[in-house]
Amino acid sequence: MTLSQSMRVSATGMSAERTRMDVISVNIANANSMRTGSQDAYRRRNVELAGGPDGVRVVRIAEDQNPLRQVYDPGNPFRDANGFVYYSNVNPIQEMVDMLAAGRSYEANIAAFNTAKSMVQAALGIGRV
User: Fold this and answer.
1) Which long-range contacts (CB under 8 A, 24 or more apart) does 68-76 make?
2) For the chain, how many structural domains are there in total?
3) Is 129 part of a structural domain of the chain?
4) Contacts for 58 with CB less than 8 Å, ≥ 6 apart
5) Mean confidence (pLDDT) of the chain
6) Which end of the chain offers a freer environment for a tag, N or C, measured as fewer CB atoms within 10 Å?
7) What pLDDT is stored for residue 36 in this prediction?
8) What angle (nearest 5°) sits at the alpha carbon of residue 36, between those of residues 32 and 42?
9) pLDDT tens for residues 79-126?
10) Which residue has the higher pLDDT, 128 or 61?
11) Cα separation values, 116 from 23, 71, 97, 103, 127, Å
């Protein structure tokens, strides 16, 4: 792998992790949404990544099909016939763990990119007199 290819792979990794962090942010923002009338509660979204020789790419952003969180609240106007209210299936703690992992992956890609950049600069400096 050449240094320019290495930098390209790191750049695609940073882009993919940025997408992951954006989706996680939306998940956290909608963690307490509930089903209202005909509109279902927000479902957690997950970013699927794939790696290849040209780097990392986002395959798709998929909805999590795990069941919605249900809370018994017979006084809520959005309850069902049994008195349950349905909230988003987002777990804020898990989202924060995922955000930390995405942030660390982003930082690792920055370090790899900067290392390759330094190597290119050093190689260019060899020819200077």
Assistant:
1) 68/35, 68/40, 68/41, 68/43
2) 1
3) no
4) 16, 19, 47, 48, 49
5) 93
6) C
7) 87
8) 45
9) 999 999 999 999 999 999 999 999 999 999 999 999 999 998 888 888
10) 61
11) 29, 52, 29, 20, 18
Find how far residue 49's CA is from the centre of its chain: 10
Question: Token digits for 124?
Answer: 């260019």
Taking residue 101's Cβ as centre, other Cβ atoms within 10 Å add up to 14
Hey, what are 6's tokens? 């290495």
What is the separation of C-alpha 39 from the centre of its chain, rounded to a whole number of angstroms? Answer: 24
Would you say residue 18 lies in a domain? yes
Q: Residue 129: its pLDDT value, please?
A: 63
Which amino acid appears at position 9 of this protein? V
In order, the DSSP letters of the chain are --HHHHHHHHHHHHHHHHHHHHHHHHHHHTTT-B-BTTBPPP--EEEEEEEETTEEEEEEEEE--SPPEEEE-TTSTT--TTSEEEE----HHHHHHHHHHHHHHHHHHHHHHHHHHHHHHHHHHHT--
Q: Which domain holds residue 115?
A: 3-124
